[in-house]
Protein 1
Amino acid sequence: MGERYQRQRAQQMHVWVLILLLFHISIHASTQLTQTPTPFKVGLILDTKYPIGQVALPSIQIAIADFYTANPNSTKHLIVVQRDSSSNVLNAASAGESVHAILGPGTAPEAAVVSDLGTKTNIPIISFSVTSQSVAPCCFPFFVRAAPSDAIQVRAIAALIQEYGWRRVVPIYEDDDHGASLLSLLVDALDDVEAVIPYSSSIRFSATVDHISSELYRLQTLQTRVFVINTCVDLAVRILTIANQIGMMSEGYVWILTEQLTSLLGWIENESMQGVLGVSTQIPASERLNGFKRRWSRQFLIENPDADPLRVASDLSNYAVWAYDATWALALAAEHLGLVPNSLNETNNSFNVLSTLAVSDTGKSLLEALLRIQFDGLGGEFQLVNGELSMTKPCRIVNVVDGKARQIGVWTQNEGLMRPLRPVIWAGDSMVTPMGWDQPSSGKRLRFAVPAPIDPGFQSFLNLEVDKTTNQTTAKGFVLEMFEAAVRQLPYAVLFDYVPVEDASYDSLVEFIANGSYDGIVADLTITAERSMSVDFTLPYKQSGIAILALAVKDKGSENTWVFVKPLKPSLWGISTAFFILTGIIIWFMEYPSNEEFRGSWWRNFGTIIGFSFSTIVYAHTERITTNFSRIAIIVWLFVVFILTSSYTANLSSMLTVKQLRPSVSDINDLKRSGANVGYLQRSFVKDYLLKLGFKESRLLPLKSPQQYAEALTTGRVAAIVDETPYLGVFLDNHCDGYQMSSEIWKTGGFGFAFQKGSTLTADLSRAILKITETDESSAIEQKWFYQDQSLCSTKDNPYTSEKLGFESFETLFWITGGTTGLCCVIALIDFYIQNKDKLSEIVADNPWKTSLRKIWELFSKAADNTDNSSKASSA
């Protein structure tokens, strides 16, 4: 009976379970039927006659299919309403159904128009192809840029320019808002790498072949051979084709393509692309990207059956990737919205939505959802910051060879251009890196002022010769050769002429440059603070200072009494004395415990230290050394003393044996107080310098040649001549006997070349001067134009200008002896501490520091007494 009941009970339970299961299935099925995704209409404005539209359309279709395959439970479904913008983008935007957002359009001018209407209607405009800063979320709040900004690629282009040392770049851009916007960014980026844009070429999309040819021929007349081209594909094809025909794709030319061309290389003819460089955003490789590329190629060939399958399969445009990610982001943002009305908020429910300026109910919510979206897309992490794609991915640098883009390098925002770059095949199939410039067939010639006439006797600095037949000016001399050597180092050609300026002071020449009469000054022009307010100076190509030239007089004995201290500089005297005393103290300390000769009263100990120290100068120390540590220290010290005394003796002998001459005037203050006349080189700034020092103008006598220098000094017309050291050096080259030059009394900025304020030549020539001064070229030029070492006469027969020995000459020796002596002392202290460790601990622990020091000394003295007793006992 019980078993039968149990079986009936089990059968009833099975029936109920079956009923509940069927009920659940029916409920789930009915729910599925009632949760049909809400259509979410999205406008798509593209011109499918042009590459961006053809590339983007398959990507958008694939993105929608992929999204709803990955999200089968979506509550909304994107319905794309496509409009063609080929005729009029405004009509395309307005002649459509009620949409919640718009994808596209493809170009910056179209995007500006549509974004303006989108702002008025609160409809988000999501662009995957407009990278121009002329259309930005700051100007159009409902504009969303789902592609990297131009601000990134221009920095990569500037880094590429800097890498190859090109200093001048000519942009060729389409005459529209995008072209002008990128030009502004490029100017700033190039300025950061110290490159400039001497000329920019804007070409309209509608330009004829003749107009493009005329503009390219004009570019050929310039010296710059580096071009950055930023146009749409159709215009770029026409420009590059004509450039190839007229020889501008040959060796020596450099063509760099921006993102909008590099990402669409498949649409540009191969013949006109050989050797060009391109910059584009690097899309990270992945299996997902490879799968998308295969499906995109199939879809593209279905919609464009005439396309080349091989080219389509090999080249995936970045625009295809960005269109895919933008569509995915829009679908994802739609899922975050609540209930969506089937139409926009409009009074007449018109078909022409934008033209009636109806305001979207979902626009603000959709925009906010878009700005919060973050996911891993085909192009990497997708995240919008301030309405723009946050793009931290690197840029790739490609070289087009045989119709294929070959990556040669990578640029990142943090690291810059990653080195080394792969070899480049340049235009004309050349492997030689172009200089970036060439001698132009025509162009402006710069006019450089040269002072004339040249002061006689100083033609080694500068000399002008005018051919009376041709009226051509030939310039030569040290200054001109240095200038032309620097010009040869420039990464571009400079066309210039030397223009003699008659009877003008150097300050007047500076004023001529400041007011634009000339482009620069090529002369022995001294760099001063006052002049630098009006012109820009290069780095000095010749160092200079101001000194006094006077008659040489024999040095009186009373004035030369202390000549024996002159071989060494004060620093060496002081340090040597300190080491003598320090060495004596340490030897006394180490010998005190074991040597009676080093003990006694304080006065006796002091005398022992001083006597022992300085007697080592002549090796006459009589004290016996007993400890090994003292012997080591004294041996090293005696070696140092030997070197010092030998060097001192040699230098003193040189001073005492030469003819003792000195300038009759060597101090500018003495010269000022004397009331005597002073000479200076005419047209020099030295006159202003003397006036500032308080000299009366009536005492200043202008001179113009070395012969006048000699005559004025010999006849007594002037007591001295104050001039710059390069000129005085030239004078002493030919008038060595009877004249002496003092040491520099004032340091000047040196000789430099001057140019108008803001001239790019200033920085470029400064670098060039550094290059030639770091090589032997500068020395060779100087030796060519000056007969001998200009310092020869200023140092010959003059003990006051003889080189004194300083501490730097013996620094290593002092380190050796100091280290050895110090180490020996430390070891002696350690030995004393080990022998008296317990007693020292008691003294330090039980007494204040003054008492401790006294008792430690008593312990030290006691140890010395014990040593004496031990030695006496052993002798007994």
Protein 2
Amino acid sequence: MFYYKNYNMFYCKADTYQYSQPIDSISESLLKTSRIYCPLDIDTEFTHLPYDLNRPTKEVSKTITVQIKDIASSEGKIYTHPDCADIAKHPVASYGFMTIDHLVAAGHRCVLTRVNQPTMLPVIQFDLYGFFLTAELYRIVQGAYRDDIDELVRSKNPKLGQIQMGRRLIASTLFTGNKREPWVYLPWVLEIDGHKLQVALSFYDTCAVHGAVNYATFCANCGVKLKYKDTFTAEEKKVMIKMYLEYLKRYGDYSLGDLYNHDALIENMEKFRIIYRSLNIENYFELPRLTIGATVARIVRSKLLQFLGFDAKGKNQVIEFCRYGTAEHFKEYKRTTAVYNAKVDGGRCRNNRPNVARSKQLIADADIAGCYGNGLRNQEYPLGRPITVDYPLRSNINEYLTLRQFLKKYRKELVPGLWQARVSTPDDYLLKYSQDFLVSWHPPKNPANIPTDSELENTDWFTEDNIGTTKIYSKQVNLAIIQADFLDWLDNTCTARQRKELLDKLHIVTAVFYPKSERCTTIPEFLKALRKHKGKNITEAKIKRGQSKVIKIEQECHAWISVNMGDLLVNQLLAARSKYSKKDPEQKPMNDLYKLCINTIYGDMVSPFFDIGNVVVGNNITARARAMAWYMEKGLNGFQTITDGCAFEVNRVISAKKDRELRSEVLFEIYNKEDSSSFRINPLGNEQEIKHYLYRDGESEKIGLIIDGDKLDNQQSLTWLGTQITIHLQKEFPNIPVIDKFQFEIKDIYTSASFHGTANYKFWIGERDIKGKMRSYKKIGYDAYHLPGDDLQLLTSNYTPSEEFLRDLRNKPEKVERCKTYLFYKILKPGEYKKNYETSWKNSEAFPGCTVESARLLRECSLTQFTFQSKKQFDSWEREQKHLRDRTGQSYESWFINDSGTLDFQEMIEKLDEMIRRGDMKYGSSREASKHRHLTREYGEHPEYKCLLKAKHQLDIRYGRAQMEDIQDTAEAPIEVVRGD
């Protein structure tokens, strides 16, 4: 019988996602190459199965169909997954690796088998294209073939191949010579049309190509039109099996619409050709990568090549010039304190008024306009080798320079924006004069473990395990970043005694600077200095009994040159973007793409994953933003500082009294000093209270200000406030350059608000509430339960714990209702699956890509709300809180419960704040019962604690972690409670 064979799906040659030399027959192609490529767009439709929590089933989800399209075809095909064979309306996929069904449908004779040993056969590499491929990975394989995929996901040996997920799914194998290739071999042999081939897999996951956007937006930005993406509503998508059975035509149109990822990548490539041309660097064009960060890093590198006058072949030379400022370079200093320079610190995040839970004053939410973007335009980017000051990492006899000594020695060589140092106070010293400007960092045990592998550039690297923790302590400093803006703060806002203490008690653990004396002003001068350098590195040992020493002299070339980032790239991108209208549907995608590039440059500078990143540049940009945020926080009497802004009461900002100046000592814990002789609290830009009025603007209510009797509308009010903030801060903090570098924008004006932790808040306009912000909580509602008897009872499927909690804080902070047990939903990612496989997923039917649940309680008490004096004090409170939480389901809340069972949140935060400011090491020491070792008698269980334990146990049964009789053991296990920040 004759079969028509479609060979259009196979290629002999591939350059990332560009394919050439399509083959006419496998026989002929194997004469030219030992590797054949089969690129396919894939997608699946599946459903999360409902279940009764009291009688949980182990089956988590059911895959309905698999959709596959070879990239040369205009439309794909649908195959019913074996899970739904009983209701199949399409051919049922039968192979262990379901893409083979597509090859068979194209007329090829295929036999797929598993083998025990690697083969020396020619290779067929399946390049799978999709958006968030983790969702499809386990659904396109079955039986032992799924086990093979699972083994690669859990693999800890890169030489045997690994499948990992950061922002996108990747396959990688480490070969001899430390060369990492983007594919994995499977123990599968495919016999196709009589030819046996070894199977390899590679993934082209497009979910990070344009950053954090969805598939529809990604395609729209690339110019790929999707006709049927809105075919189903959100509610209909929850019952996709019903859609499959009852609306087959709509289902087909919708499901096949997700098979245009390769098309989108090709269109994206053309969009970036336009961007390269607009920057006059078309001769340096490089294929866009699968993450926007990597794509933009190559644009920056191309602009540096152009700046230096090199052609594209000079790439390695530019990488060499940039290398000495990268995180990767500083990680190589595994035995000296220079390794601490590998990290770029983030934004300021602090609760400035921790004993305030709500405000019913007029509130403005202010941001630094274009915080990091403007910071980038003002920033010089250096090329060359900086000076590094460092000491042995594990030595107890390091004689660090004090800040005073360091500045005396090197200040004339420090170029603003191009130096940094990490400073610490001595281990046994607490500052006499409290500060909250410097942010301490406690690195991981091995700082060299901070990940910088470019292929893992989107790992969740901001965890305690690999970058440590950051925190502000009032009487201790540990490895805090300082640079020019800190010196401005030190010289202009500190009192003489605090300045003296910091100059003498801050030790320079490590420093990096591009020395002013070595600066070159022209490119020929820079290149000549590199060529003519004749320095030598010398090591000399001087031996004398009891006084032996090793003297090392390094004479590397430290010549350097810099270029302004605005002049290099940012200004050109802004000009090119202005040519595309945001309002024109045809032009908006390019406008958005330019904006994405501009915003990504900053991320590339501070990222540890790119060869053009520079930790000195990154730390100066973020430190400049943290400094500006400090002046906002203090001058505006803000509530919470969150990276680039804070909310404040427009009638209660801080001003110095006549003939006085605002000093950092006075501004520290200002919420307890409202009767100070140094400052007054008054309206912004006015002597009289600022009035407001509410008016309708379309469907919504807006707030306008009344200034000097004139009614301003909302937009005019926002502009007026932004201008007044600049005037106010410049007046109260004279001689501070950073204030002149930024402008301010107001998101909106509100009539009341509630605050929690460091970054959780909710605003109101009149009685209309604005959706709150609380980390770890989604906007959708959750299933909430209570336990009236032996069985759990569903209370609601639309429980929003963060919204209800923040609403209570605003309405009745002395009588906050206790939270309910709820189920938190998330997608199981490969990283978590691998890490917790033995304890959580080994006996479960859940796999990466499934939606899984965990039982949770909202934690009302958050220690992040308070500023501790030292790490020792914070660790002590944190240990105590964890102990209480594991025993009772709550921590300090149990001492502040009203007779009605509600929580007096206001009294709790006032009491804890008072004790922490006083220096108490834990709460229990304040209780009389503690002195007689009877403190446990005062412990009280959270009213929903038993419900939580029951829900956890039922989920343990669902995921194969426990049997029914194990419930007593569960009661002893630590519980999961969400802090919310």
Protein 3
Amino acid sequence: MNGSEHSGSYFDKEINLDNLYSALIECFSVILCGYAAGKLHLISPRETRGLDVFVRAFSLPSIIFLSLAQLDLSTVNWKFLGSILVSKTIVFCGVIIVTLFLSRPVHLGRTGLYAVFCTQSNDFAIGYPILNALYGTEHPYYPSYVYLLAPISLAVLNPIACILLEIGKIQDREVARIDGEQHKEVIDGVDGPQRPKVSESRTKSKYDSLQSSDIAPKNNPYEGKSRVQFCGRVFLNIATNPIMVMTLMGMLGSLFYHYIKFVGVVLNAFAKVFSTMALFVLGLRMVGTANNLKGNALVAPGILIITKLLVFPLITREVVSLLHTGTNATETLNLSTFGFMYGTFPSAPMVFVLATQYEVEVDAIASSLVICTFLSAPLMYISAKMVFMDFIPSSDYYRKLETFTFNLGIFGIPLGIWLLVLFLVNKAFSKVPHRVTGFLIISQILLCIGAALHPLRNLCKPWSAYVQFFIFAFGLYSSRLWAGFLAATLAVLQSRSLCFVIKLVPGFIALAWGIPAILVVAECFVSVPNYEFESLVNPDFNHKMFQSVVTLLLLSVSFVGTSVCLILQQRYQKRFAKYMVLVHEVNSKDLQDVRETNIAENSERCNEACTGLTDIEEIVSETKPNICSGDCKDEGLCSSEFSCTEVEREMCEQRIKQYKNQVINEEMDEDHQDRQILKHVVLLLLLVTSMFVNLMLSIWTLVVEDAVSGLYVELLFLNITLNIGQIFITFPVFGFDSRILISNLTNRWRRFCYGAECIVLTPPEDLGFETTHVCQQFIAHHLHDCEGEIAKNKRLRLRMYRDCFQGKTLVSWLQAQRLAKDETEAIQYACHLLEGRVLRHIENRHHFENSNLLYTFKQY
């Protein structure tokens, strides 16, 4: 079948997606029903565990056996199946490797579970109806490939994951036993008559052991046990695993299934209810789990979902195309499109069954599975609509592509300007790592300006084209470099010190602005930019081969560098978090003495030197102790392991002093600035995703230059959204941090109306009964205890404030003392205290807020 035939048969084809809608509605309805049943307590946790047992021990093994035993191997494109196996193996191994690098302590069960999540698709409940709707007429044998693709995971990859899960289970038991023994030793040591003080060398040695093993116990979990005995336990657990048993039996049963069809009749009764029961149990387990996904807990599910819905489909399409799985170019194109469509299916409920069976990341997997299923719906719909648009004339989409690019630039410019205003008002450019983020935003604004200027390329030839191309390419290249430098900043800030980062920033500026300028000037000398948008198959490739090489090289370096730096940052963060926990356990008795003698106010200068490898979120809470080793000297300096000379340390002290003088942010407490590490990590993860999409599309453009399919157009629009529209990624992360801007506007309004920036409270004689009663009760029964527990001396902007506390600390105290049942009621209680003059902001400029703002009690 030639290209014209495809154009006539595919381009105008109306696709019936009723089965798609039915499958999605059925899936989500069952999940919501399960959630409602759990939320309304119609099904108890004990009953939920019973349903878990039925799903994993009866229903799932049955469907596995039937799918493997009923395979018809006579008309199979084994080359295509091999390409799917290769793509799944690439993703499977990649997830395991990345998880091993990021996960501290190393947990093999978690790595196997994450790998299954990213490679096991919901083939039977969602996949088959969609594929049957798309290919049931044109390629009726394509939907049957689902029964061949599922065994790739069931028979090849899932057994590997089960082995890792079994090892992880045994590892958990051994670690728990050793932890219990070590905890007893520590308690005995604390209670002993002659407990030695923990020295710097002892703390350092424990930290070094953590660096080498990244596991808290001193002993190897497998020490004292023979490897043969350990392997025997692993294979015994695998041999008694129903999933593994039925997988092996299904592979053997495919040879003589027609002799034992009566077995299929029995197992079919269990298999029919698998999808419904698994999704219903998934909804039950979602009750209360979403509340646990906050802060850093959102990072892992986000990475898993991006890998499953974007990385896996793109890798599958590339592998199928590169291996030329079809007998001709048309069949290869159809199979690659089929592979991409298959990759967009959400993860299978079986991964949730494995999580509950081995009790590994149950809440995270449950939430990720539901979110992945919901997010896959629009992606599957768009892909299904465009899957039959195989050969599209360029005139049918170039015009829309140009308009779309122009709109992204026009709408992105004001968003970027808003972010710059926030950074300037919040004085973020004086802080690290926000200084690097600000330069990244400037690059993204230039990229949007270049996209918005594209219609003006013909205004004054050739200079208008040169100017537009220079701004566009310069913004694109510099934004990629700044993303890599931002990741490097986070990694160095976690591994070295603030002073070292400050020394690197000027070098980052020179490289991030200089390299793009040189590359763009060189490209302009090579050839004249194209004037017509229609001549560009990929808007990133304006200058044929030269710019293709430059773009791919820069993109690859940025992608790899950003990914590696993010991995290192997470490793350092988790490593030092365990170190802090270990030191806290050993020194708990000493810390109690420190609290009682109130010398914590003298330790402010050594906090960051001790925590040079940890981020702000882990140590900003006042409830965590300030632990300093013997080499604590100045904030922001490298630890003694880096062997800095006295001259270098003096220079670093000067840099840190200048830096602290520049940083004046009301939101900071006396110890730390809000570096918003989590926000930067989320931003970089999204930017890495956009780099990956751009990289895959660029490779596709270089390999296949003559065929423009509907899937290519879909990826092209997605690529433009994620690359030219980078500012739309940055804006949700930092665009709503406008508290200081609103505060400044409020202060100016107060100055205009009342002649001062201080807040104006209700006169005491006009206070309501509830406010008066709350204040009287608090003064009589709780003020002394509250002030003694939370009020401390704090330094802010080179000034010392005595007996003050953060607003969020008071909110936590009120809830702990049962004066408020939740956060909302605690904030309302504190507002009554402020209106009644029991407490006030240290500068009388803010009402009460559940934040890091400092307040103090009125002296009675």
